[in-house]
Design brief:
Order of helices and strands: HHEHEHEHHHEEEEHHEHHEHHEEHHHHHH
CATH architecture of the largest domain: 3-Layer(aba) Sandwich
Family: Belongs to the bacterial solute-binding protein 1 family.
Helix content: 40-55%
Protein name: Extracellular solute-binding protein
CATH class of the largest domain: Alpha Beta
Number of helices: 19
Structural class: alpha/beta
Signal peptide: 1-26
Keywords: Signal, Transport
Pfam families: SBP_bac_1
Distance between the termini: 46 Å
């Protein structure tokens, strides 16, 4: 798996020498020596990313890993401070999808044009392809994708009489867990993943937090969370709170806290919405605390598409992942673009999937023999379809304010009421966007 960038690097290198020879010679000439491109990454998949940096380094430049903080909020803050100051040492960045509109709107990202744009989007699923485009320009390269599915114990669903071969609703999942003494795991702490849950349920009911046709209008976007879809999403949260199936730490729950309740020492386990890493996580914990007791217990783990908010309406699974952006102030723009394409190549995505459980953005990678060996075929199909048909969070340059405004009015979950919460949050969000209220 350590051949990651070689093929693409040779291809790009040949093309680059032919079309960008003058600029490359200028960048490599003089007394500057061989340049080093700094790639700011988040802590996920460090070993694989470090290998990618080594594999995608060339005779013309080296790629050096620089580690960002673990928190997405802190990652955004550090990168934004660097870019706002015109930092030329920020060459490559691993970006959360919601950072892309903000950074592109601020002119902090270089664009990929013509053949480079085609390479960036070649074979990419619709969900990730949409994320990296701003004002009809490609402003980043999709490296890996993330989505949520419904993970569950097959024995729990069977005991509840729930047919998992058909789409299931949030109401059905909550009722099934409550009836059998199981739980429903979600992410409901006051942080970004809670907004991910809220947004997915609203979109699954046919609505949006902001009108998609106006979302790129920034502060003038139309707020649409006070809708029947907003009420439907709030009703699910209220039902879970009151059901007996909520996990005890609901108001502080995150991606990791609910993992241990899938395979408890006693009890039927749980249903849980969570990201793609779950399969590899439990596979690596067989026979260990927090994981399946043995291979037979691991076989009791099931997965299906994200639950429907409204019965009969297709769910809109969340989408996440990482996009590779090139800093607008880099002193080596051509090298940096080439490097960005290399670390997001099909070979790179294969390594990230097999080593770290990160789903590819390129459709053809799902058919690779490496993934077929590492993951069940039906799980790969589910992940690919969920990513392709995913529902994005509002694609706004002001997403940080939007997210914090939603969190402030929907948290704690026990305070959510379908009759009041969507209306209150809409009024506050409008005021925040207009600069009439502070977070």
């Amino acid at each position: 798996m350590r051949r990651t960038g070689a093929a693409l690097r040779r291809t790009l290198g040949a093309a680059a020498c032919a079309t960008l020879a003058v600029s490359f010679l200028a960048a490599c000439g003089g007394d500057s020596g061989k340049p080093t491109l700094n790639w700011y990454i988040n802590p996920d998949g460090q070993e694989t990313l470090t290998q990618l940096a080594e594999d995608c380094s060339t005779d013309d430049y080296d790629i050096a890993i620089q580690l960002l903080p673990a928190s997405a909020t802190d990652q955004r803050t550090q990168l934004a401070r660097r870019l706002a100051a015109g930092d030329s040492s920020t060459d490559l960045m691993s970006l959360d999808p919601v950072f892309v509109p903000e950074f592109a709107n601020a002119d902090w990202l270089l664009t990929f044009e013509d053949d480079l744009a085609d390479q960036a989007l070649d074979d990419v699923l619709d969900g990730p392809a949409d994320i990296v485009q701003w004002n009809d320009q490609v402003v980043a390269v999709p490296q890996w994708a993330n989505t949520q599915v419904l993970w569950y114990r097959k024995s729990l669903a069977e005991a509840a009489g729930l047919d998992m071969s058909q789409p299931v609703t949030w109401d059905q999942v909550i009722d099934a867990a409550a009836d059998q003494g199981g739980t429903v795991g979600v992410q409901a702490n006051r942080y970004e993943a809670y907004v991910v849950w809220i947004n997915a349920m609203i979109q699954g009911a046919g609505g949006n937090i902001l009108d998609p046709d106006t979302v790129e209008d920034g502060r003038d976007a139309k707020v649409t969370i006070d809708s029947q879809a907003g009420k439907d999403a709030a009703a699910v949260i209220q039902k879970l709170v009151d059901s007996g199936a909520a996990q005890p730490d609901l108001s502080t729950s995150n991606e990791g806290t609910s993992l241990g309740r899938m395979f408890p020492s006693e009890g039927p386990g749980s249903f849980m919405v969570n990201w793609t890493f779950v399969y590899s996580n439990y596979k690596g914990l067989i026979g260990q605390p927090g994981g399946p007791a043995d291979d037979e217990a691991f076989e009791d783990l099931g997965w299906v598409r994200y639950p429907q908010t409204v019965e009969g309406e297709d769910s809109k699974p969340p989408i996440g992942g990482i996009e590779i952006g090139v800093g607008a102030f880099t002193e080596h723009p051509d090298f940096a673009r080439e490097a960005a394409l290399c670390v997001a190549s099909p070979e790179a995505q294969t390594a990230l999937a097999v080593n770290d459980g990160f789903a590819p953005t390129r459709e053809s990678v799902y058919d690779s023999p490496e993934l077929a060996e590492a993951f069940p075929a039906d799980l790969l199909e589910l992940l690919r379809d969920s990513i392709d048909e995913a529902g994005p969070r509002p694609k706004s340059a002001f997403y940080s304010q939007i997210s914090n405004a939603i969190q402030s009015r929907w948290h704690p979950p026990s305070s959510v009421n379908p009759d009041t919460t969507p209306e209150r949050s809409a009024a506050f969000l409008k005021a925040v966007l207009r600069g009439e209220a502070l977070l």
